[in-house]
Amino acid sequence: MSRHPSTLRKNILWGAALVLGASGLSCRAPLDPVVIRFRGTDVRRSAFLKELEPLAKTGTDTTDPATRASAFGKFLEGRVVAIAAVKSGLKDADRNRAEVERWLGSVLPPETITEAEAAAYYEAHPDIAAVAESVTIREILLATQQDARDVVRILGSDRNAFELLARTRSRSPQASGGGLLGSFRRGELPPEIERVAFTLSTGQISGIVTTSFGYHVLRLESKTLPAIRSFANSRPDIEARLSEARTRLRMKQLIDSLVSQAQVNHEAVTAR
Fold first, then answer.
1. DSSP sequence for 120-131
2. 3-class SS at 15?
3. pTM for the whole thing?
4. Which CATH number fits domain 133-225: 3.10.20.340, 3.10.50.40, 3.40.390.10, 3.30.420.40?
5. Does residue 40 surpass a pLDDT of 50?
6. What is the separation, in whole angstroms, between the first and last Cα of the chain?
7. Residues 176-231: tens digit of each pLDDT
8. Where in the chain is the domain with CATH 3.10.50.40?
9. For residues 136 and 222, is the Cβ–Cβ distance under 8 A?
10. Distance between CA atoms of 43 and 61, rounded to whole angstroms?
């Protein structure tokens, strides 16, 4: 056995939530050696091989030592976290992801971000205060140009009929909601629609816009102009960003510490 340092993987919580009971913690034949020993709990090779089954179904050669070593890092982290949670009293943590998250939350409570820290971040990262230009639009999507012309003609005499026409004539998936597409920044809409949408005034209805999807008639619901938010308005986002970054770092440190306490049989992991 040797001690094995590791790093945090993106899916650590998912790995931790796998069922330890089905992973081979009970007695096994001599050909099923222990690959992890942590805080009095043994995890056997059969558990790790079972973890590799979905990967094997994708065509990956799971007998390759390099592939196994890579996959084992995630497996190791997930198991030691789940075992630590169980040992702390959360008995269902071996098969319940929510329990593992609850345990991590208890040992990694959110940090308080001071006003001075938030202000320093505001000054150093002007992007956090930037408000991008955006538009909120509705559309009526028609199959033919003649259908689109008919809709434009009706709207010319009754602008308030837009939502009714969207519900009754539009082919858009959003028809039942009166054609409301949502809010978009530049670069998030098809170019033909974007060029028109960002030139409209609030409440204005467009002419016919042709795309590969069909013939569109648009109405601008609202527009947000580019702006710079004050520190007070930006502070909640700053605090959330800083808190998340610090929590990630502390989680990595915690899991690295747990992994360093585990005894690992690398030879059994990579053996064919």
1. HHHHH-GGGGEE
2. helix
3. 0.63
4. 3.10.50.40
5. yes
6. 18
7. 999 999 999 999 999 999 999 999 999 999 999 999 999 999 999 999 999 999 99
8. 133-225
9. yes
10. 23
